[in-house]
Amino acid sequence: MTRLTVPTTTVQPMRLSQLRSAPAPAVQEPAATRALLAHVRTTLMPAPRGGGSAMAEEIVRVRVLLVVGDQAEIVADVEDPAAPERYPAAVIAEAVGVSVADLPGRRLLAEVGRDDRLSGWRLA
């Protein structure tokens, strides 16, 4: 392999297998997040007392579509879901008490915070 030297940085070519295993960047599009939440809202509920997030405004039903690298793709648990959103798989797995490998296909409940981010994961 050939190395390309740039003034203080050495760039090495990556193999295709390295690209496939690299974690996807956790980029959240505000419009996409709002669209997912508009599609996923099933029940407006106040935040649970005693164990829930004080910032939660409602609870939504979601499904883990798949896990890509260290990110879980979350969709609305409805017949025709909107585009998936990515959340850290390890955080979700720890919250619901399953391994990351067991997340795909799981139906969950999540709290929607005032910032429109999901948290407070639990099994549905």
Written description of the protein model:
By secondary structure, the chain is α+β, with helices and mostly antiparallel strands. The chain has one domain. Helices cover 20% and strands 34% of the residues. It has three helices and seven strands. The strands form two sheets. The chain has a five-stranded antiparallel sheet with strand order 5-4-3-6-7. A two-stranded antiparallel ribbon has the order 1-2. Strand 3 and strand 4 form a beta hairpin. The longest helix is centred in the first third of the chain and has 11 residues. It is globular and about 40 Å long. The N and C termini lie far apart (50 Å). About 10% of the residues have low confidence.
Main sheet attributes: strand count, strand direction, barrel closure: 5 strands, antiparallel
Low-confidence stretches: 42-54
How many beta-strand runs? 7
Strand arrangement across the biggest beta sheet: 5-4-3-6-7
- Tell me what portion of residues adopts beta-strand conformation: 25-35%
Overall number of structural domains: 1
Mean pLDDT figure: 74
Overall, the morphology is globular
Class per helix and strand makeup = alpha+beta
First-residue to last-residue Cα separation:
50 Å
The whole-angstrom Rg is 18 Å
User: What share of the residues lie within helices?
Assistant: 10-25%
Q: How many individual helices? A: 3
Give the ordered list of helices and strands.
EEHHEEEHEE
